[in-house]
Description:
InterPro entries: DUF2179, N-reg_PII/ATP_PRibTrfase_C, UPF0750_membrane, YitT
Oligomer: single chain
Low-confidence stretches: none
Transmembrane segments: 49-69, 76-98, 104-123, 144-165, 171-190
Membrane topology: Multi-pass membrane protein
Helix content: 55-70%
Distance between the termini: 10 Å
Protein name: DUF2179 domain-containing protein
Radius of gyration: 24 Å
Strand order of the largest sheet: 2-3-1-4
Subcellular location: Cell membrane
Amino acid sequence: MSKHWIKDYLGVTLGALITAIGLDAFLVPAKIAAGGVSGIATILYHSAHLPVGVVMLVLNAPIFLWSALRLGWRYTVSSVFGTIALSVFVDLLAPYVPLLTHDLLLACLYGGVLCGIGLGLVFRFNGTTGGTELLAALLRSYMGINIGQLLFVIDAAVVVWAGIFFRSAELAMYALITIFLTSWIIDLVLEGVSSAKAFMIITKKADAISDIIIKELDRGATAWKARGAYTGQEQEVLLAVVGRTEVSRLKAVVRKEDPGAFIILADVHEVLGEGFKALEDKKH
Length: 284
């Protein structure tokens, strides 16, 4: 087994552990059924006292079988390890994880953050936890609908069911907050906090601006020819990626050299290469 596979399994295991803590310490005790298989398991835990992890595993079993028949075993196997790890951790830790708060808002926020971090790590290390993500992929193979839309419909149905079962619109609203927060944290873990800014500069003074970028900011720049669709005039486009602290300096440079330049500024979540993070070989 290569070191990449070992790293992936350790990452998925850690992610499953953090997710389980979020469920056991906050969401399940607070009756916050934040969609998906874990939400259904939370409802069944409070209605029939069934172990959350066991219910999650049982609910995932037919989804795995369906996935294997429809999408193939290779696609399905990648989900099995993360699902089993999460289910085992949830039930294993449940007797030992203390109830940290009775406040629903705190439970929803901290539970959402922990589950977001945990699931983000699982996805970052090439794993999944099965559940609604796998179910949405299956339904998409039949209907061709966007997976994001299907996930929202499935999660919303679980939240509505929980609200009706617990007779609390308030719990349903907290569950929605948790879903949005978890999704945001997952994206943050996968993409990272914006660490740099990308400048796309359409200018007639490309040589002068790129020279300053290279010599004064010690950054690289890429230039290519472009033609304005409306004016038909030839101009150059510069692409440069700089650190946050250099944004104001580069704006000032462009403003000074070419006040008529057109600038597009965008967040960059990860930059690999010279001057930034080292480019790693991620082949398995």
